[in-house]
Amino acid sequence: MIFHVARTALIALKRDRGALVLSFVLPIVFFSIFAVIFGKQNGSTPKVKLIVVDEDQSETSRDLVKGLMSESSLVVRTSPAAEKKNAPSPAAYTAATAEAAVKAGDAPVALVIPQGFGQHPIAFGPGGGGSSIELLNDQSDTIAPQIVMGLLQKAAMTAMPASMADEGMKYADEYMGGFTPAQRAKVDEELNALKKEQASGKIGTGNGGNDAGAGIVAVKTRAVVGEDKKSPMISFYAAAIGVMFLLFTASGSAGALLDEAESGTLERVLSTRVTMTRLLAGKLVFNTLLAFVQLVAMFLWGWAVFKLDFLSHVPGFVVMGLCTAFAVAAFGILLASACHTRAQLGALSTLLILIMSSVGGSMFPRFLMPESMQKAGLLTINAWAIDGFTKVFWRDLPVSDLWPQVAVLLAIGVVLFVVARRVARRWEVA
User: Fold this and answer.
1) How many CB atoms lie within 10 A of CB 387?
2) Are residue 329 and residue 270 in the same domain, yes or no?
């Protein structure tokens, strides 16, 4: 009897394709996604985008920039990328434009090498002099500044050997009683030889060794984004979790179409003057308003309980909230139109929403993912919605800067609704 009971349960599982998919396919898919996100590919670390501004333009500063560019863990940019292939090269970054780029999210870190750096590049110990490089960072990414700081010290040791030796001799001459004329001549001879080798490319490539010096170059850190935020990550999680559950709510609410089709109500409604297009449009409006009200409730809860700065960002929230709600509502209607039963809808929506949420940043910040996963996330509603809400609540950008996210979300909503309308023709034929 025990064997027959187990066999009956197995047959029932095979017939329920949705449960079968959730039992075997979903765990494998999620394992693969998070293995790509957290797994080390060939032992390398994710590359950090770094903006470098060289105000000094000395031989020493150029050597340091070359050393940073040679680091495989960094993507160094000294000027914005050209918008078109044949367009002229944009002007190099300045301190002001680099700070604006970090605020806009183009890169998490920027380095500004000041004028006079080539004269005093090295700082030996606390208060040891040296020109301070300014590090501008976005506090939402706490890992990137640490990586850049370590690689900067490494580049200073490996890419500027002549400058380090020259500066070291100055300190030795000052604090050790001075060199004799013969010693000074020998030191100058060795320094000139070292500079010639560095100029020929034999040394100072930035790739020698893995030791990163601590404090060789003085650095002043300044947060240009998030410094005055009381609850810096609350807005991110409100948007990330909110969008994921909006997708579940929208698919569940749109499932009323399947209930109406099963009960015969849909056929009676379509026999009146209500067309399928008007019916779907009405449900789209209802689901959009329902999703938007849910977002309002979540962000108001964050404002009341977790001190989220909500009231000063209401215009941006309304724009992003309505666009996000429209996109998820159209997504839910498409799923309901494509499925034949509630069981199919539940299985398919769970599978797709969890995949979209993991890749799109609802479960793990996209900026910490590998570059390939970040690009894959752009195929999801989650990524565009989270990016828009981040611009509003984290970067304090005006509503006009939301146009890429608004355009994409509206386009997604329109396309999904058009496809849903075409798929729903099966009910008209029936």
Assistant:
1) 21
2) yes
- What values do phi and psi take at 160, rounded to 5? -130, 55
Helix axes 342-360, 234-254, angle to 10 degrees: 160
Residue 211: CATH number of its domain? 3.40.1710
| Same domain, residue pair 28 and 119 | no
Cα-based distances in Å from 44 to 48, 74, 142, 359, 377:
12, 11, 19, 21, 21
Domain end residue (candidates: 225, 259, 279): 225
Q: What is the pLDDT of residues 352-401, one digit of tens each?
A: 898 899 889 888 888 777 778 888 899 999 999 999 998 898 888 889 99
Report yes or no: 210 and 291 within 8 Å, Cβ to Cβ.
no
Tell which residue, 141, 194, 204, has the closest CA to residue 169: 194
Its domain, for residue 22, covers: 1-40+230-427
Cα 421 from Cα 172, distance rounded (Å): 80
Provide the token pair at 382.
Answer: 């989650």
**Tally of domains within the chain:** 2
pLDDT tens for residues 284-342?
Answer: 999 999 999 999 998 998 888 888 888 889 999 999 999 999 999 999 999 999 888 88
Would you say 333 and 418 are in contact if contact means Cβ atoms under 8 Å apart? no
Q: In terms of domains, do 253 and 382 share one?
A: yes
Concatenate the DSSP letters of all residues of 157-211 into one string.
HHH-HHHHHHHHHHHHHHHSS---HHHHHHHHHHHHHHHHHHHHTSS--S-S-S-
Amino acid type, 263: S
| Amino acid code (one letter) for 119 | Q
Which ranges in 78-180 belong to alpha helices (H)?
Answer: 95-104, 144-159, 161-175
Full-model pTM:
0.72
Backbone φ, ψ for residue 109 (5° rounding): -140, 145
